[in-house]
Amino acid sequence: MLNINELTQLCGELGCRIIPECTLSEYITFRFGGPCRALIGVNSAESAAKLLRYLKDGSVKYGVLGRGSNVIVPDEGFDGVILLFGSDFAQIELDGNIMKCQAGALLASACVHAQQSSLSGLENLFGIPGTIGGALYMNAGAYGSEIADVVVSAEYIDSDCNIRTINREDMDLSYRHSVFSGTDCVITSVTLKLREGDADKIKSAMTECMSKRSSKQPLDHPSAGSTFKRPQGSYASLLIDQCGLKGLTCGGAMVSEKHSGFVINKGYATCADVLELCGKIQSIVKEKTGYQLELEPVILR
Hints:
The chain is of the alpha+beta class. The chain has helices at 4-14, 45-57, 107-116, 132-137, 199-216, 236-242, 271-289; strands at 18-23, 35-41, 62-65, 71-72, 78-84, 92-95, 98-102, 119-120, 141-142, 145-146, 151-157, 163-167, 186-193, 195-196, 249-250, 253-255, 263-265, 298-299.
């Protein structure tokens, strides 16, 4: 059972900021969702481990958020504590071509940091709206590149709240999957190996990448990015197009007319709207094409 006063005292001892009864809509890119019992800004791996141990020992429900770019929060909120890996835990360090990023560092910041240091390998990932920890958790990728291409190791907190290190070969990296997916392990830092390059060429590639995103994706509306995983043998957006579902709406949620792989928030969508729309898409695509689409965003339950 959660003792908010006790948790607040622990956060004070650890130097972590805490917001009781925090509405989560401003912490996810879809911009909807109810409150959590408390939101805590993690400031170190050690703090995270102590907080996790406290929460687990007290059987307190908890969840982890980074940028919230691949997350759906229910309208009723989350009846537990959220550990936020954000700006309080976002340092990036370089040693030659080795980049170590704390889990809350934005992937975009890592891309810019690399470019400014004439290091190549992250260009195609520029514009993915997430943290480095979230990127590794789901092996984020775009335009033929994945975080798997450059990661060498990671630090994480295991199920027993111990801080561990894992090498790339043990991460079970595949399409939108890592060894961390679906577990209660928490990534605290990611180490990347980049290669020397030309800063101007790297910047040009990043600009081109962002231009592609802007021209093809509905970046002017809140969303969780690609709504469905790529089914084997096809593409979610192609199947949705073939079924004539562009523009389909449920309340404030709509299949983007710019890119049918995105369900967007028109400004007043609820979680119920989005899940109802996604269910309709899955049902119609299954009926007409035989493909079963799987949601890419994680539902915070």
